[in-house]
Amino acid sequence: MYYRSINEVLKAQYGCKVYKLALDGGFTCPNRDGTLGTRGCIFCGGDGSGAFAASGSDVAGQLAAAKARVCAKGGKKFIAYFQSFTNTYGPVERLRPLYEAAMAPDDVVALSVATRPDCLPEPVLDLLGDLNRKKPVWVELGLQTIHETTARYIRRGWELPVFDWAVLELKRRGITVIVHVILGLPGETREQILETVDYVGQSGADGVKFQLLHVLDDTDLYADYVAGKFRTLELEEYAALLADCVRHTPPQMVIHRLTGDGYKKHLAAPLWSGDKKRVLNTIHRYFRDHDVIQGQKFTDNPK
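User: That's the sequence. What structure does it adopt?
Assistant: Structure tokens below.
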């Protein structure tokens, strides 16, 4: 079996490794500003899932700082990635200069914007479509699950038809769509997780990010974990589940991530997720041993 990893796709397109530069646009979220709630999604930490995003300066300054960190690794081409919170949650008058500043450098080959499907009004969609004619635009949608009981538990704040509409409208404008799926959400079975993966595969989206559920001590999920209401996955268990997810992913779909982690200082569980080298080596070994990948260099998402 062969799957399309984002690193290999980008290397084939640009002739070198392409690095993602995580940016902080100073956004918030309707789950935090009182529109839908004030405490965020149950798993979301104080950084709005942007643990590794640059911050503290304008976009140009953030790009420069982020480039400096990866240039020692040989980085020559980059994707500007608005990561923290909901990065389309604002008026076009605010969004356009942020996006254009991020796309301006010649060595930035694409713009990636993480957001919620319920935060894509028509003017924002049109803006993204306009920018996509200048350089590729990716929109990353946090689906996490298709199951409404779980969605209510994690306080997602919107129902599945909103996701379907967002994918349709983004694709209508030629925009690349990447979907985030969390593996190991409390109460979900293997079968339910694979139902979500199958749904994403048929949604029209171009790519998927598989994210391990990890518990941070500055989230409401932490209280449920401490109370013993659920357990997190073991490493070998995660590798086996991830292999099943990859097998359910259409061959044309690009896999952007196989795992995920947060700040170690806030990580409560599973502690093994903080050792990324060990995690990737274990996944690699499991995939090789179980014929999930053959004849392919093993890589995770670009940084």
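The chain is about 35% helix and 15% strand.
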